[in-house]
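Protocol step 4 of 6: record predicted structures for both targets in the notebook before any analysis. Target 1:
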Amino acid sequence: MLAALLPPLVFSTLLIPAISWNPSIPFPSCLTEGVTWDPENVIELVIDVPTPEACQLACSAKADCEGFSWIADDIDLLVAKSCVLFSETKEEIPHENIISGPSICPCTITGGCKSIDHNVIEAIPDTVNISQCRKICAETDGCEAFTFLGEDHTLANLCVLYSSCEDFDDDCTECTTGIPNCEPCKFSETFYGVCTVCSNDALLLSYAPPLSGQSSRMVLCDDPLDKTCQSAQVTLCPAGYHLCSHLEFITLNDKWNFSINKNHRPVGEIYCRHKSGAGHFTLGYNGLSNIFLNIDESMNCWYASSRPHSQCTATADGCDQKHVSALCCSPNPKCGNGAVDDPLEECDDGNDSDDDDCLTSCTWRTPGSSVGRYC
């Protein structure tokens, strides 16, 4: 009822069109490398602080601390792992071997949640700022996300509380969305502004540099104990990621200057083979000892794997190649909109089912033998 009572502008401007945003995926670290602030505003020096996150925690515990700098390596009289606390952070000063940040990471993103399936809990007018909106959300039962409308918005200072945020609009530049309680990724786990943590104790071997014009990211995760079946490699991917399709790989691998031994060859999406069974898109078909990830790979369904019997016939157990690594891609925001968008898609049926011909990676479930080797 509440969504219907609010002015239409809130939901037409704030919430359409929608892209995917998952509040459960950790926010990236807000810390910055290579900058600090005016030493005249130093209020305390703490030594032997093990990580920049521990330094940030020390800052957040002091009411007058606005920001901190963590010393990564010895600098003049400052020894490594020193933590410098500042009362003001108005002007950044470039400096090597320093990681700095605010007392608390804001954990917000520009844009707004979409009103769908009665997920609006309440809309509070005359909210002072984002911090107050977050506090209201934290104190409201069932609030999973909030959107605050900024000063230049028609409905300025409106705080909208949501029970879920399954769809998201990034076109509202005067809207700020966040979650009530946030534990952002560590600085060491944040690459190019994206939180990248492999799951189930897998190691992050490498990540592809971001590609201009593409929001998707690609990383390589590996089970150091080689106990994960090839058919379950997706469980090693960061939260929200999936095994990359062949189109995602050849699009996102530009300037990925990394190589891996063939004994840990990367595997991506699982496709149904034309005759029977299933196989991964697999790198390193040329037989060389080292696989270079900046070299495009032809479509294939090489390493045998498995999909549910409802999707592929006579599937193998998919557990005889545990030495492989997982080629993981973040969600493509356009996949699922019902339109085929180059260069990452070859189909798009507008749903999230893998039981039909078009997979949720927006590639064909059964490529066919004429399309790829072993397919």
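Target 2:
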Amino acid sequence: APPLFILFLFPILIHTLIPSMPLETTPAPVVQEHSSHFEISFDEEKKNVFHYVWLRDNCLCPKCTQEYSLQKLRSSATIGLSVAPSSFTASSSELQIKWNDDHTSTFTYAWLKENAYDKNATVKRREQVKPTLWQASEISETTHSITYASFMNDDLSFLKALKTYLDYGILFVTEIPSSTESVELIAKRIGPIRETFFGVSWDVKNIPKAHNIAYTSVDLGLHQDLSYYEAVPSVQFLHCITPADHGGESIFVDSYAAAEKLMVDHPKDFENLLRIPMTFQYTNNNHYFKAQKPVLYRNENLYIGVNFSPQNHGPMNVPPEDVLPFYESFKKFSDLVNLPELTFTKKMKGGECAVFDNRRVLHARSSFPTDEPRHLRGAYLGMDEVEDRYNTLGAKHGLKPFRA
């Protein structure tokens, strides 16, 4: 065997005798100055435009953005449209700009790429948050459920469940303790509960002379809760504490899938429901809620949004020539919503909780005998809280934000 000192020196000799291979470096982006903007080529095929007014408005220095709150210290309205560089320096990693208002801004290329607003970048962001449309056969007990213990205690499983919810709008939590407090614990794992006139959380039981059709045993057709609110609660939790022995099945439908089918197969009816508003109301039990809004709308991602709750339709307030077109188009949409292939039916067991996007996933219930002690407990949450929780907790585990 060779002496130990030879083994020790061998790597040093090799390093000395054989020159190191040059490291591959990423070429610096090409920055071109124009009258109103920079054109930056991060690669040979793609050029991104960054307007001077946009760059000056988004300066990240401590004079423009507060250090700890990360909020702006000036209004976008104070940025002059004539702002322009007096000079700039483009290094291999960042762009430094001296403005004609004697201010200096520095942007890393990584930040510029992340916030680029060209058409391709915008389309990519929309695709990132585009919902996954589904039919009943695509909702699985395996892929769309999580145990209560994992939901509450396992961050990675919890994050996976939230991503499923964000994509599909529906999720089931199983093996939940049989307590009226459980639904609030599940909701608060995500964020603050949105209280309504029903309370922080609320019971769904068959009640004699109920002021809400949900608190009866009759067949309850597909609908959204609180459609008469101006800002409809996004996330709904329904924890089954005691199921009915006969009937009382829960039914869920992806209204986005039905709306897209209407758009493709019946474009005129689709446009009618985008254009003509319906009255949604609840005027009972010392409450008076009324909202005028169309059945379909374009949401914040330019995707289809839905307002659907026939139980809460009130008298329409539209021009006479819009009445018949509305009813004709609404019937076509209602027929699509109720297609068997879109209808996911589940007999909820005690200890299961459905978590679904109330603005997207319509829900219904089959009738059950009045003497059955069916008992669910519900709560609401905002979609913003779901995204916030996913993004902040996900960042600790190396996940990218849901909405980049």
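Step 5 preliminary note on target 2. The two ends are 59 Å apart (CA to CA). The mean pLDDT is 91.
Proceed to step 6 after PI sign-off.
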